[in-house]
Design a protein that fits this description.
Isopropylmalate Dehydrogenase, binds nicotinamide-adenine-dinucleotide, 10-stranded mixed β-sheet
Length: 358
């Protein structure tokens, strides 16, 4: 039987609780679809600081690099908040992303039918549902460009630089095209080409690449208009591709359309199908250890792992359908509404695993 090797970082707070439910669901999917997992646990964040004194042990990088992909819960907590910056749990998170060369961040913004009412967007706008994928460049642009402070005309000033080179733009845009090919074949490239030179290079490059993807309809949109269109008419979008800065903002905006932080999955991809999969929420120390955390963002991250790194799209789709089925009757407290049964983390995980096709 095919065996996939996964590095598993449970992390801090609710991380261990939600990751346990995710591996439970992945194992159940493996049974149904004919594969198995070899999980390789490793430390990151606060638990790594407690165990070995640093947030990102070398051993963790080694295990992750040797795995097919990485599953991550969440890291951080008050206990480590007073440590110097380079020793805090967040440094471990940034460090592992850099060490693994994760350049493409995928953030799905979708609404599961039973949760339609939880969205801040009117149901008339949502219609039958929403399914947008935001693809954000993760290792370039203004977050990594030259920056500094100086004095201009006798007053203190500061600057940051947006700089993209063609190979960086090509790499992320090809990820966008490839995703669009497998979805509704529409790619919207977001930029600010009316003002920024880096955006003009971005637009030229993505337009040139479009010749390689004739079946994908490419459009362009200025970032300010896109921010507006995401709430005015989000159904017009299939895949959005954008720079690090614009993607940071738009992916948060788009994902909030779904209405609950406990439902939001993400993937960060390197080349060759390798990726790190994690819910977008943090370690939720306020509810950790109480068995009430919503495991669905982590479980849906596991489904993305099957889809984008392991080439098991049927298993991924089965998990998404099982989540939809579980939501029709059961809810963790964060998404509970009248008429639904209130359940804990473990019961929700069981409900998804049980609903996978036999
Ligand atoms: P958070 O996402 O952990 O929590 C925000 C709120 O959402 C809390 O009320 C929490 O209870 C709730 N929440 C989050 N996930 C939930 C879930 N699955 N089910 C139910 N409720 C959920 O953000 P925060 O409180 O700002 O940060 C807490 C810690 O997490 C900090 O140390 C922060 O640095 C860290 N953090 C880590 C990551 C990561 O690991 N990727 C991301 C963000 C924050």
């Amino acid at each position: 039987m095919k065996t996939y090797h996964l590095a598993v970082i449970k992390g801090d707070g609710i991380g261990p609780e939600i990751v346990d439910e995710t591996t439970k669901v992945l194992d159940a999917a493996g049974k149904r679809f004919g594969f198995r997992f070899d999980y390789r646990p490793c430390l990151l964040g606060g638990c790594a600081i407690d165990a070995v004194g640093v947030p990102l042990p070398e051993e963790t990088v080694r295990i992750c690099k040797g795995a097919d992909s990485v599953l991550l819960g969440a890291v951080g907590g008050e206990k480590w908040d007073t440590l110097p910056g380079h020793l805090r749990p967040e440094a471990g998170l940034l460090g592992i992303r850099a060490a693994l060369g994760l350049y493409a961040n995928l953030r799905p913004a979708r609404i599961f039918a039973p949760l339609k009412e939880a969205s801040p967007i009117k149901s008339a706008v949502i219609g039958e549902g929403l399914d947008i994928m935001v693809v954000r460049e993760l290792t370039g642009g203004i977050y990594f460009g030259a920056r500094g402070r100086r004095e201009i005309d006798g007053v203190p000033a500061a600057y940051d630089t947006e700089c993209y080179c063609v190979p960086e733009i090509e790499r992320i845009c090809r990820t966008g095209f490839a995703l669009a090919q497998k979805r509704d074949k529409r790619l919207c490239s977001v930029d600010k080409a009316n003002v920024l030179e880096s955006s003009r290079l971005w637009r030229e490059t993505v337009t040139r690449l479009a010749e390689d993807y004739p079946e994908v309809a490419l459009s362009h949109m200025y970032v300010d208009n896109c921010a507006m269109q995401l709430v005015r008419n989000p159904r017009q979008f299939d895949v959005l591709v954008t720079s690090n800065l614009f993607g940071d903002i738009l992916s948060d905006e788009a994902s909030m359309i779904s209405g609950s932080i406990g439902m939001l999955a993400s993937a960060s991809l390197a080349g060759g199908g390798f990726g790190l999969y994690e819910p977008i929420h943090g370690s939720a120390p306020d509810i950790a250890g109480r068995g009430v955390a919503n495991p669905l963002a982590a479980i849906l991250s596991g489904a993305m792992l099957l889809q984008y790194s392991l080439g098991e799209p049927e298993a991924a789709q089965a998990i998404e359908l099982a989540v939809n089925g579980a939501l029709a009757a059961l809810r963790t407290p964060d998404i509970w509404e009248e008429g639904c049964k209130r359940v804990g983390t473990k019961e929700m995980g069981d409900a998804v695993a049980e609903r996978l096709p036999g």
